[in-house]
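Q: Predict the bound structure with zinc ion.
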Amino acid sequence: MMDIIVALYQTVVSLFLFLYQEIYGFLHMDGILELFVYAKKGDFSSLQTWDGITSLLRQIWGIIFFLEVTGLLIKRKFKIGEDYRMPFFISLFNSLIGRYISIGVIAYCIGLCSPYAIFKAESSWYIFIYGYIVWEFAYYVYHWSSHNVRILWCLHSVHHAPKTMNLSVSGVRFFLELTYLFAVNVTICILLGVPPVILAIIMSIDSIWGEMLHIGDNFLPNARFGFLGKLIITPSHHRVHHARNPLYLDTNYCVLLNVWDRLFGSYQPEEDDIKIEYGISREMNSDSFLDVYFGEILDLCKDIIYAPTLKHKLLYIIMPPGWNHTGDHKTASMERQRFLDARQQEHREANFQTVSQERSANEESISTI
Ligand SMILES: [Zn+2]
Ligand SMILES: [Zn+2]
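A: Predicted complex:
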């Protein structure tokens, strides 16, 4: 009996510690407290190492997270239920299940693909630049396919579910999504000759900038970053990516360099007269964990069950969200194209009206002469 009580006690304590660690990590408290320790000791020597720099950035994120929440509290716009509860539960769920899967996938892909790399390169600054461009390409492949292959959208849609933007959104993911991301990215990078050491550095920059892209618009309303925004992906671009306005759908897939978005035609800056509406097109209860996490999977299952033939069932799995076996498709790219065509038509009509007004004004002035 005593053994059972001790085991129960240990389980409760472990659960409590796990929850404490998760809340602590979710609030980025480790970063803030580390900064206090450095300041107290007056010793910042560890910041001269790569680990020190990434740790410093985590500290900055911690402070931004704190200011983001404080700003919302001051403006009385802080809604813990709508804005932070769901991201926290999803982070917790992912930690419970997927924490170690991703690390295993990275190691497995490096081991599997290294012998087939197109060349073996030593680490250098130009290989780093090459590596980063390859990484962004790989990320584009992962991200584009996540939006355009229905089964993969089921994983990725969780990240697009929040109806507001703040730093906690970066952790809102289906637990298998990072596994897919790493499998695609690490495989492509290693096969294209990016050395694992360089890859590790790129991955840490990517995760730091990837988190920064989700900075709240309440905290930083204009995040276009001026001229820099023409060269790199900014939080403003990523807000556009999270929007469900027709013009913004399926754009800005990159994380830091916008080169592939520009090359493949998916680059879209934020426009002043189109206010971003966050979320996904499907009607969804953003307060329901089950709907956010499994809603898209359920919809896909329904479509597969009711599809008339085996071919249609398979197509539902691999075609873009919105594809329909009846031919009545409502995909994101079609919706965006419809918007662009309508806007072009409006411009044409407005130009035509201006030209005709100018012509009639000229005719009037000639007749009065
Ligand atoms: Zn996305
Ligand atoms: Zn995002």
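A: The two ends are 111 Å apart (CA to CA).
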